[in-house]
Amino acid sequence: MDVTFWGVRGSIPSPGPGTVRYGGNTACVSVRLPHDELIILDCGTGARNLGISLLAGPFGKGKGSATLLLSHAHWDHIQGFPFFGPFYVPGNNFTVYGGSRGERFLEDVLERQMAAQFFPVQSFHNMGARIEMRPLPEDKDVQVGGATVRAHANPHGPTPALAFRIEAGGKSMAYASDAGYGSGGPPQAAVDLYRGVDLLIHDSTFTPEDRALRLERGLSSLEDAVDCAARAGVKKLALFHYDQDYTDHDVDELVDRGRRRLDGSAVSGIEVIGAAEGLTLSL
Ligand SMILES: [Zn+2]
């Protein structure tokens, strides 16, 4: 299983000299399964570069297929959707899974961001590829090609955000972007979703001090991420979804603090890294 980061930033793209190492694009991660199947996690602005790389292969010839899992529909998770090149190539096939609040919920939200006032190509039905939208049941194993996928809704301010666990070929990973746990910390159901995975990608938007000032945003601090990794006994933790105002230096400090917190805990053997655009992890 190869996991590649295409966008690691939260809220809004933040390009510039201060963010070149970790990158300024918003949330998008690709998961290449054994037998070459592709799952895409979220469709923030990082999806544009993923699309460009895919067009060099079968997706450029209308022979590609992939599954897209959307955690929720905030801008930083869907703004890459209209700019994802393989959507414009007839013959490509996509299944998009998202939250299950009503049959047409996801379709309506994605259509609205492509309304004429916002974007010149009206309706994703005009993009060329076949794009099917499906609600994803929560807390239930679903077979997606050769992978087993389970979704769990984490609290995220006024609306929930889905976290995903993916297992295939004896390897496992979990993706938990935008998790605003309550005052009791990560609930057991979330920890159970992450249990024992080879890689946990977890929301680490803030330092604990900044999170305390912005609790209503429904996002995690690096301490939430580290505590989840320790309680779930994961092998590797990738910090993810950094605040748009954090520079590379600030993210370096987040990663260092994460390592120190784990070193000071009773748990050992968990590797902590900062997710960065272009980084591929082979599990
Ligand atoms: Zn977000």
Question: How would you describe the overall organization of this protein?
Answer:
This protein is α/β, with parallel strands linked by helices. It has a single domain (2-282), classed as Metallo-beta-lactamase, Chain A (4-Layer Sandwich). 21% of the residues lie in helices and 26% in strands. It is built from seven helices and 14 strands. The chain has a seven-stranded mixed beta sheet with strand order 6-5-4-3-2-1-14. A seven-stranded mixed beta sheet has the order 7-8-9-10-11-12-13, with helices on one face. Helix 4 packs across helix 6 (222-232). The N and C termini lie close together (5 Å). Bound molecules: zinc ion (ZN). Zinc ion binds at residues 10, 27, 74, 76-77, 177-178, 241.
In CATH, the topology is named: Metallo-beta-lactamase, Chain A
Please give the radius of gyration in angstroms.
18 Å
> How many extended strands?
14
Mean pLDDT: 95
- The low-confidence parts are none
What order do the strands of the largest sheet run in, or round the barrel if closed?
6-5-4-3-2-1-14
Structural class: alpha/beta
What CATH architecture label applies?
4-Layer Sandwich
Q: Please, how many helices?
A: 7
Largest sheet: 7 strands, mixed
What is the class in the CATH system?
A: Alpha Beta
